[in-house]
Amino acid sequence: MSILNAEHSKVLLMKKVFFQGCSPELERGSTAIVEKCDGLPLALVCVAKFLLGENELTGSHCARVCHNLGHHMEKEADFTKLQQVLVNNYSSLSGYPLRTSLLYTSVFPNGRPIRRNTLIRRWLAEGYVQCQYKRSDLEVADENFRELIDRNIIRPIDASNNAKVKTCRTHGIMHEFMLHKSMSDNFITSLHDQNRSNFRHLFIQNHASGSTLSSNQRTSPASDDAAGSEKFRARSLTISGDAGEAASEFCRCELLRVLDLGECNDLEDSHLKDIHKLWHLKYLSLGGTISNLPKKIDKLHCLETLDLRKTKIEILPVEVIGLPHLAYLFGKFKFGKKDLRKSEIAEFSQRKSKLKSLAGFYADGNPGFLQLMAHMKELKKVKIWCESTGADNRGLPDISKAVQKFAQDGMDTTGIRSLSLNLGNTMGDFLGSIQEYCYLSSLKLHGQLSVLPQFVTSLCGLTELCLSSTNLMGHDLSNLRKLRYLLYLKLVEADLGSFTIDNGDFPSLRRLCLVVKMPILPAIKEGALPYLVSLQLLCKDLLDLSGMRIEFHDCLEEVALDSMVSARTAEMWETAAKKHPKRPKVVFLKRIDPSEPASAAKYVAADGPTREKCIVDSPQSGSRTYVEE
């Protein structure tokens, strides 16, 4: 069943419960219920039925019902049908590991977007993925995630360039059911639960700033120092919001495998001084209040994932890069040592680094990271920010050599090999020195180029390409047609100029995304892009169809437009889609931060075009005119 949007959900609830009218206070209180039901009609109907049995209904009462919804679903007869549906959904999952993986998602706050890769890496760290046959743990985890999406148990928010779901969240009502079940099974609970010592996973969500725990709720992780001290068996701790006193005590949870502090608002550098004692830790994420890592972090020998993307850390301690099991390192930092001796590089090489993702680091004239890259034999994904080092740009040849070595090392593989290169304020002409015949499956180039580097069009196996703010136009972009195996192409430019896609160009392309300022789109000839399934045209000033002929694309399933397009343009695209044999859906994407430049803009789904408008109907002609305000 399709879910309802917020407005239709509100209408349904009002119709079932507040048919005699609704005061502003009651309407405000019912908003939380609408959000929790998350557009599921059965959930809204069951809640409405329960509310009708109440003697006096107020906004505060609605809020309490919403807060205790998990308890009501289990105890109240009005929720029997909903409970059966949720239980059947859960029980029908194949095997204990998949059901456990689903329950694990309730450790995140309700409604919070969850990165697919973050969830999968946490599953792996917790040991909730059981390898089958000769497949890797990562393949099994990816399949489990896909099954939860396909069953509509967790909800996709947006898709990445290869059509995989990039971000998701649980349905509000399903989250409530899973959290209540997790607590009943001693699986997940709040750190402030008095019975927390028996639970495997702990969380803090929206803890009030500056508050303290009462004496019978204070966090007392495992310690043998004092008689009667509370012992924990928790394997993970996830903090969202303010941690309060728990920020200084989590290091006593000695069995932790996962410590997610990425959303913690009141964490300080001093709170990490004893983090090296968490010897079992495999996954560590830190938030925006952290500016330094303790040097003893090299004691975390089991650490596999270190996520510093939200931190203020600018210099990465040398000790981190030498962690023996570190596979995923995320952030934006410079190397912590100016010059590496040959003996140090040789020692690093002998350790056989396990790093698979290094995303990423500044290339600022310090060759540290670039020198070590050549000895990261398992490296599959790397992100580099170039930083000008003066008029001579003396560090650019080092970048070119490192990129070429990384790409050439992939020649003996057919797997994922991804490079993201942000040129910053340097010109990308130095990339012209990279020889042809390299292997990359994914390439992102951001920054000015005078010409398209020759190696790009000769890359073996390139299936994903993103060019942003390159200022390339016409002839250079036309050279991309040589990429016969390209599946995804994204161009983010102010103006694409005269760019034509002829019959026979991009014979494998399935997804085309154009983010442009000027509403001038490429001319796509009949017969071109025969396998195109998704067309994203993100330009708020798009004029009508802008010369696009979607009837040329027999496989088209989706057209995405900027939510700020005019109502007239939106209607014209919807009309064209209805005339198409496959009736592709027309979706609207909204910029999260309109002030960001197009190259950095992120989009989320919107219900429809959002530009303010008024509609004028002509009684004489029956026509409709849209006037933008």
UniProtKB/TrEMBL annotation:
The residue ranges of the Disease resistance protein winged helix domain are 107-177
Positions of the UniProt region annotated as Disordered: 210-229
According to the entry, every stretch annotated as the Disease resistance R13L4/SHOC-2-like LRR domain falls at 234-585
Origin species, per record, is Aegilops tauschii subsp. strangulata (Goatgrass)
User: Mind telling me which Gene3D superfamilies this protein's record contains?
Assistant: Helical domain of apoptotic protease-activating factors, Ribonuclease Inhibitor, Winged helix-like DNA-binding domain superfamily/Winged helix DNA-binding domain
Which residue intervals are annotated with compositional bias (Polar residues) in the record? 210-222
Give the protein name, as stated in the record: Uncharacterized protein
Q: Which GO terms fall under molecular function for this chain's record?
A: ADP binding
Q: Name one GO biological process term.
A: defense response to other organism
Output the SUPFAM superfamilies linked to this UniProt entry. L domain-like, P-loop containing nucleoside triphosphate hydrolases
Keywords of the record, alphabetical order, are: Plant defense, Repeat
What domain of life does the native source organism fall in?
Eukaryota
